[in-house]
Specification:
The chain is built from 14 helices and 7 strands. About 4% of the residues have low confidence. It is mainly alpha-helical. β1 and β2 form a beta hairpin. Helix content is 42%, strand content 6%. The longest helix is centred in the first third of the chain and has 75 residues. The protein has 2 domains: 42 residues; 337 residues, no CATH class. The N and C termini lie far apart (136 Å).
């Protein structure tokens, strides 16, 4: 068999070498160096350059200030101080912006009486209108919850703005939770007592100071030490003095406490001269005005403490929003605030952000507008608490000595079982009246000062 002869395979020509060609490894090192080292160099180098510029700018500012101080005289000094204040404000603003957002937790204090009244004092306390309030038992306050409520408070309307609408602590809450009278004369008078020792001896039978001493407050420890234990053969006058001391402790420790004080102001004592006329004062509106004032004051971000009847505020929140309490099987008792003093209280406490979230998620559907109409609660409330119920939805100023706040019951009609209409613009107390304190106003009669609001 014949096969054709294959053509010869010629060798390929050898490629000529290219002079100075970069190798693959060299190219790789060049790319890595560009990616890694250049940004680091520019970063650290830029940072150092910024620091140098900042130091040069400050040195230049210092030299400029020194020059102005030497040349400007008095006017230059004032101008220099003003410019310095402006720079400090700018720096402070930048520092605040850099800070992380934090939630404020307020502090407060409740000074419960710490002992039950003697059985012989009960008739006198009931005569004065403090029979139910005298049975109040203090409980642990959840300041995270109170702080979360303060963030929802609006000073212009004295209401909380929740997802369900406007709501607030009302005269109904004071009357039904404490049994205090809400109709009567304004709780007012002279806040500076000329002869405090004489007043204490005449109404309490004892005084923390001698006749020459000057004081304006009574310590709770002094009240407890002198009036907790009564002798078996105590006279009627001694029982009257002990009843006044107990009422003073309730007023200053539970109903209208200061934010960081363990005393009660002596201004309330002249109102307790005749226990039969004590009921003629509107103590419920006084308690509410003090609570409103403290809620308005603590809307200031710089405020760190809160006073007022915090027991009422927390109890109101738990009755209206039961989802805020992790334990809700406690029996209902009267006064209604005592429900949360029964073990285990309201259960565990949460942080301010958690309470914020709970209110945001559940208040729209879980808020109970007419919480006191539930059969179990209505059954234990005495009929005397409803005597002045026609005042619950009123629109009027509420007063306690130097404190004047406006009560807007017409803005929360759903809390009284009524249909809510579009309310009128809220009434406002004059700025010079709102926030007025008692400092430097010795001998001033607040009933005369606020007579235009009392007349309303």
């Amino acid at each position: 068999m014949w096969l054709p002869e294959a053509a010869p395979v010629l060798p390929l020509a050898e490629a000529a070498p290219v002079p100075n060609a970069p190798t693959v490894i060299g190219v790789l090192f060049f790319c890595l160096g560009t990616i890694i080292y250049d940004p680091l160099e520019s970063h650290f180098g830029g940072k150092e350059e910024k620091k140098k510029k900042k130091r040069r700018r400050r040195r230049k500012e210092g030299e400029e200030e020194e020059r102005k101080r030497r040349e400007g005289g008095g006017e230059g000094g004032r101008r220099l101080r003003e410019e310095k204040r402006n720079r400090e404000k700018k720096r402070e603003g930048k520092r605040r912006k850099k800070k992380k957002v934090s939630f404020r937790k307020l502090r407060g204090r409740v000074n419960g009486v710490g002992y039950s009244p003697d059985a012989r004092l009960i008739p006198y306390l009931e005569l004065a209108g403090f029979g139910s309030a005298a049975l109040t038992r203090t409980f642990d306050l959840r300041y995270d919850l109170i702080s979360a409520l303060v963030e929802r408070w609006r000073p212009e309307t004295h209401t909380f703005h929740l997802p369900c609408g406007e709501c607030t602590v009302t005269l109904e809450d004071v009357a039904l939770q404490f049994g205090l009278p809400i109709y009567g004369d304004a709780v007012t008078g002279v806040s500076a007592i000329a002869e405090p020792a004489v007043l204490c001896y005449s109404l309490l039978g004892a005084s923390p100071g001698d006749a020459e001493s000057s004081f304006s407050e009574l310590k709770f420890t002094w009240l407890k030490a002198n009036f907790q234990h009564l002798s078996d053969n105590a006279t009627e006058e001694e029982l009257l003095c002990a009843a006044r001391a107990y009422i003073m402790h309730i007023i200053g420790g539970v109903l209208m406490p200061n934010s960081n004080n363990n005393r009660v102001h002596l201004q309330y004592l002249p109102l307790l001269v005749d226990l039969r006329s004590v009921r003629s004062y509107s103590w419920g509106s006084a308690v509410l005005s003090m609570l409103y004032r403290e809620l308005c004051r603590t809307t200031d971000p710089d405020a760190v403490d809160i006073g007022g009847c915090l027991i009422l505020l927390q109890s109101w929140a738990l009755y209206r929003m039961p989802f805020l309490a992790s334990v809700t099987h406690q029996p209902y008792v009267y006064p209604l605030v005592n429900r949360w003093s029964i073990y285990p209280g309201i259960g565990r406490s949460y942080t301010v952000p958690i309470y914020h979230l709970m209110i945001e998620q559940h208040a729209e559907e879980g808020f109970i507008w007419t919480s006191y109409r539930r059969p179990k609660i209505a059954a234990i409330i005495p009929s005397s608490a409803y005597v002045d119920s026609h005042l619950w939805c009123t629109n009027a100023p509420i007063i306690c000595f130097n404190v004047v706040e406006w009560y807007h019951g017409n803005r929360v009609l759903r809390q009284f079982g009524c249909r809510q209409y579009i309310p009128d613009p809220p009434m406002q107390v004059e700025k010079k009246v709102h926030g007025k304190n008692k400092r430097g106003r010795h001998g001033q009669h607040w009933g005369v000062t606020h007579r235009r609001y009392i007349a309303v």
